[in-house]
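A quick aside before the break. I want you to see a complete sequence-to-structure record at least once, exactly as it would be stored in a machine-readable document. Don't worry about memorizing anything.
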Amino acid sequence: MMAISKGAMENVIDAHYFVLPSQGNVYSLTKLCMSNGANKILAASLRRKVFSFEYSGDSDGFLKPTVKEVLFTYIPNGTEIISIDAFNRSQSSDDFVIGITIIKPSEHNTETYLNIYSEWEPSSEINLDSVAQSCLMIELDFIPYQLYHTEIYTDAEGESNKEVVWLLSGSDQKIHMFREDRANHCYSEVDVADHFPELVEPPSIILWMDIYHCKTETRHVSAFGCECGYVKLAVVDARKKVVLSCWSVRFGGPVSTVRLFTEESNLKPPDFLNTPQQETEEEEMAVHLLVSNTLQPSVVYMNVLQRDLSDCFTLPDSDHYDAVLCSTIADVDMDGKHEILLGTYGQEILTYKYQECCTDKSGTWSLVSQRSFANPIHSILYLDVTGDGVKEFVILTLRGVHVMQHDPKDVSEVFNRRYKQLMDLLASKMS
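That is the input. The structure line, written in tokens, reads:
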């Protein structure tokens, strides 16, 4: 089923695979980030069905993969699921909110809805079946595309609070924002310009958006890509809701994804080491922008906070395997630095790594790995689904979902090397 070529993905091995009854799309895969670190996956198929995937321990202490259909209410016969997303409202428990956009075509009109599922009374353990029965339906007057959640900052009684909101791109060439009213147990649409002024009046349908919140919480960086090839990048004052600067560029084909990311994987050292932070000011952080395109090569704009869109790298051969449908950022070789993964309609996953030159500080993005699948790649997630602290790849294709993990031998080698470094550092502090 797969052909493996040498490179970063060479030592990523198959762990599990399950078939979907019908195909999904680029918006059909999301994650449930559990408070205990063991995460679940929700995979939606176009024909109404949603499946959860997780690993659970059996009586002998072995991990067992479990796939289960979740029967979400208010998804009637003839309905197609367009997009799904989820987030946890709590940092200490599992209080999930799940959003599903649906479309129900008929002879006379087309009905579209945003269904929001949650338990209004949070519990210590998540019960997906219970969450799936509690639905708030919001009727839409447009065809939904990407469903995305992000944070906003609100000031109430002199205190600053975070709140998670929904952003939904639509066929009406707008971004719609939905905010929760917990007192009345409902959601309502609010003006997106009041919180994200940079998302107003795009030139065409937004196919993908991404928002990066700076550590100081005073600014956020946003990017979106449109069906017409237009890409916009903006830096916004998160408190005053004012656009500080923005840039744009136009490509020759639809933009499939945009990703804002840092090169470092940002693993936090243990507090007892008292290691000084290398980056104390947000201006020193290097945030990069990946733009994948369906017709042209994908590109990376480096350090956009300092260089805007002036430092551009083309990802070689990224247009050689039909359209790029999806992307993700992952530390594939576990060296502490991120790589870029592109999933293509041509059934390939391409892995790119930033490699610095030996003579100076310059570098370039190189194709270091290529892996073939039996079907087009629709979505890629990188997260820990086994609960062992090591992330896995969850890959949605046209026919099903692959779960792939790092080779345990490689994980063991990395652990032993890092453990030795930790012991050496502790020994130096004790001396």
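Two observations worth writing down. Residues 408-430 form the longest helix (23 residues). The chain has three helices and 29 strands. We'll return to this after the break.
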